[in-house]
Design a protein that fits this description.
By secondary structure, this protein is mostly helical. It contains six helices and two strands, in the order H-H-H-E-E-H-H-H. It has a domain of 78 residues. A two-stranded antiparallel sheet has the order 1-2. The two termini are 40 Å apart.
Amino acid sequence: MKKASLAGVSITTMFYVLCGCVGYAAFGNNAPGNFLTGFGFYEPFWLIDFANVCIAVHLIGAYQVFCQPIFGFVEARCHERWPESKFITTEHAVDIPFYGVYCFNFFRLVWRTVYVMVTAVIAMIFPFFNDFVGLIGAASFYPLTVYFPIEMHIARSKIPKFSFTWIWLKILSWACLVVSLVAAAGSLQGLAKDLKTYKPFKAQ
């Protein structure tokens, strides 16, 4: 699992960094948010369509992965709060041909469907996707990806204060904090600019 995670994160990071750096090097602040069609080129159509299908598959999978902790948290709390509710606790078995028995729960079905609908409506109301995702990424990157892992490594490995390793880990942590703050500032500037021409349910 460790090797698979390392390979997956490394490959993903390489592609994202390449897209960001090459796009900015070529176009600066005029780099389009959509690298597929933002340049005004729509041919060959089949290639653009194939790339969009790949993006959709990637995002559907990512959405499932990121939503599972929220689903699990809400469902566990509801089970604790209303243990006598049959709507929340009862599992219904359905025999599906060529699959077998599938168990589903009405609460899970309703709650997850409503959650997906609400997030979809919110995404359509606020169409400035790139700046909003940039702000969320900047806010979550430093604490989750840098600060906590570094502090846990220092505590677990019992690295002495002011040792060579400790100093370089702290330099890395502070450098990443600066990058996150700059990214957040850029995203806020982009959001402020988008809000001037904002219309609900209209893509920028």
